[in-house]
Amino acid sequence: MRVLDPLPDWVPRRRQQIGAQIREAGRASGLSQVQLGERIGRDHKTISRWENALRAPDLIDLLLIADALDVPLADLVR
After folding, report:
1. Rounded to 5°, angle at Cα 37 from 23 and 63
2. Cβ(2)–Cβ(20) under 8 Å?
3. What is the mean pLDDT of the chain?
């Protein structure tokens, strides 16, 4: 696997957008970070890192989040 160094400018922006979509979907579902974390088997700190674009969720995590929040995967990554 090739890692780009430095990352293109659009990568952090997309990570922020995805984090914002996760946060918005969680709020719309009425779930806290703790509750979402419990549903997908992740710590609330991990949820916070995703929402604040410090880390990016992998595809499996995105699928779990979409299922837990009952939203289409596409809504999280648009």
Report:
1. 70
2. no
3. 93
26 touches 33 (CB < 8 A): yes
How far is residue 29 from each of residues 23, 32, 34, 45, 60, measured CA to CA in Å? 10, 9, 13, 19, 20
Residues 47-63 have pLDDT tens digits of 999 999 999 999 999 99
User: Could you identify the residue written with the tokens 């995703």?
Assistant: 50
With cut-offs at 50, 70 and 90, classify the pLDDT of residue 4.
low
Q: What is the dotted CATH code of the domain comprising 10-77?
A: 1.10.260.40
| pTM (2 d.p.) | 0.87
